[in-house]
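Continuing the batch. This is chain 6 of the set; chains 1 through 5 are on the previous pages. Same settings as before, nothing changed between runs. Recording input and output for traceability.
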Amino acid sequence: MILPFPAPEPDSINFGDLPEEIDALLQQGVAAYRRDFAAADALFRAALAAAPEQLPTYFCLYKIHTYQGNLDEARAAAEAGLLEGARQAGWPADWRLWTPRPGSPDGAGRFALYTLKALAFISLRRDERPQAEEMLDRLRKLDPTGEVGWPVVAELAAGVAG
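Output for chain 6:
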């Protein structure tokens, strides 16, 4: 499964409320990934070019590149998604300036926090531990209950240190 959303059917992913053509490109990309990474990448990039405001596309791109070990590409996609998520949430472009909000993160804000977690993981994989720790420290303040899953990455970071 690619996204943290429940799939309505076994063969499709629920990417949320997307334009039909973008959802179709993402569904095709998910199916292609199982057999043809280049085709999946091309489909996800086509979706991004057609609708750069659709956050699930960034997720698909950074996930597949992380899985493949293409960490430069994964980081580029995650950073672009982080900027778009922050823009949509009305937050500063620099995640270091984000402030805690009451309640559970949702919508674009949740996506931005989830993507910051992904960037922390990518930084760990790239042996950029200080960057990963800085992101995790910020997530501790922004999402103290760990709703976007950052504690898992923090445990990985602790394991790397130990």
